[in-house]
C-alpha cells in the first residue's frame, strides 16, 4: 500500500510537574514544541495540529505552518485533548490521526509515517509501534513498557513487568535474554481513526489500565484491537525532566 494521507495532532500542555513550561523549553535554542511540529511536517502529514491550552505555546508556534487548536485546560489526557480537536475540525470518522507526543522532539519521520501505514493496512481502530528489547536490564525495568502481539501483529497485552516470561531460561539466568523470544518495547506513538478517537475518550477506565498505569490497556479491556508494527528507525527517549533535557542537548549535538 502507498503511504496514506494522515493528520498529526500534537497535545501540548503548558503545565508539567516534572518539567515546568515543558513545551517552551529550548533545545539548542528552539522550543521543544516547535521541534516536534517540525518533525510532523517532515513526515508529510496532510495537516499538523498542535492542541494547546495556553496562548504562550501558540505564540511560539507562529509562522511554523501548523494549525493551533486552543483546547480546555482540564483534560485528563492527551487523547482527550485530541478528541476535542477532532470535534473542532470535524475530521471524517475514517481519517487517520497520529498522536505525536509534545515531548518527542526527535521522533523520526519514518516512524510517524509507519504508524499511519500500520493503521491503514489493518481494520483495527488504533495502531502503535514497538522495537526489539536488546538486554535484560531493559526487560526488567518497570519504566520500560513491554508488549506481546499475536500472529496478525496485534497487541495481546502491555505491561511494565517482564513480558513474555521465558520460564526455562529465567529459571537459571536473568542476566541475559534467550535469543528465540520476541521481547518488545512499546513506543508511545499512536494512530487512531478519528471516529474511534471520539469513542475512546468516552470509554470507562478499566482495572488493568489502573493497575499498570497504562492508558492503552483500556482499549484492549473494552475489546478493541491495536495493530503493532516495528519502528523502521529508533525513537530517542522523550523528555520529562531536566536531566532528559540535558541529554537531549547532547544527543542533538552528536547527531546534527
- N-to-C order of helices and strands: EEEHEHEHEHEHEEHEHHHEH
Give the distance, in angstroms, between the N- and C-terminal Cα atoms: 32 Å
Tell me roughly what share of residues is in helical segments.
25-40%
Query: Given the helix and strand composition, which structural class is it?
Result: alpha/beta
Percent strand: 15-25%
Question: How does the major sheet shape up?
Answer: 9 strands, mixed
Mean of all residue-level pLDDT scores: 92
If helices are DSSP runs of H or I spanning 4 or more residues, what is the number of helices?
10
Tell me the Rg in angstroms: 18 Å
| Unreliable stretches covering 5 or more consecutive residues | none
What is the 3D form?
globular
How many strand segments? Answer: 11
Oligomer: single chain
Task: Give an overview of the whole structure.
The two termini are about 30 Å apart. The strands form two sheets. Strands 1, 4, 5, 6, 7, 8, 9, 10 and 11 form a nine-stranded mixed β-sheet that branches. This protein is of the alpha/beta class and about 260 residues long. The protein has helices spanning about 30-40, 55-60, 80-90, 110-120, 135-140, 165-170, 195-200, 205-210, 215-220, 240-255; strands at about 5-10, 25, 30, 45-50, 65-70, 95-100, 125-130, 145-150, 155-160, 185-195, 225-230. It is built from ten helices and eleven strands.
Amino acid at each position: 500500500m502507498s503511504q496514506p494521507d494522515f493528520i498529526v495532532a500534537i497535545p501540548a500542555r503548558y503545565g508539567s510537574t516534572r518539567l515546568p513550561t515543558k513545551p517552551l523549553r529550548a533545545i539548542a535554542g528552539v522550543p521543544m514544541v516547535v521541534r516536534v511540529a517540525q518533525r510532523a511536517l517532515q513526515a508529510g502529514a496532510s495537516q499538523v495540529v498542535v492542541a494547546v491550552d495556553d496562548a504562550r505555546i501558540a505564540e511560539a508556534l507562529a509562522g511554523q505552518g501548523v494549525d493551533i487548536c486552543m483546547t480546555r485546560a482540564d483534560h485528563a489526557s492527551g487523547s482527550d485533548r485530541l478528541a476535542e480537536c477532532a470535534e473542532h475540525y470535524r475530521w471524517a470518522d475514517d481519517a487517520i490521526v497520529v498522536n505525536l507526543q509534545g515531548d518527542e522532539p526527535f521522533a523520526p519521520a519514518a516512524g510517524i509515517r509507519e504508524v499511519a501505514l500500520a493503521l491503514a493496512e489493518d481494520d483495527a481502530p488504533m495502531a502503535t509501534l514497538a522495537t526489539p528489547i536488546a538486554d535484560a536490564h531493559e526487560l526488567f525495568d518497570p519504566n520500560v513498557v513491554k508488549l506481546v502481539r499475536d500472529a496478525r501483529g496485534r497487541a495481546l497485552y502491555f505491561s511494565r513487568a517482564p513480558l513474555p516470561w521465558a520460564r526455562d531460561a529465567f529459571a537459571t539466568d536473568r542476566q541475559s535474554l534467550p535469543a528465540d523470544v520476541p521481547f518488545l518495547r512499546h513506543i508511545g506513538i499512536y494512530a487512531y481513526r478519528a471516529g474511534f478517537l471520539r469513542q475512546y475518550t468516552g470509554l470507562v477506565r478499566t482495572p488493568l489500565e489502573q493497575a499498570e498505569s497504562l492508558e492503552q490497556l483500556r482499549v484492549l479491556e473494552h475489546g478493541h484491537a491495536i495493530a503493532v508494527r516495528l519502528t523502521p528507525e529508533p525513537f530517542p527517549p522523550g523528555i520529562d525532566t531536566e536531566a532528559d533535557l540535558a541529554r537531549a542537548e547532547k544527543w542533538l549535538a552528536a547527531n546534527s
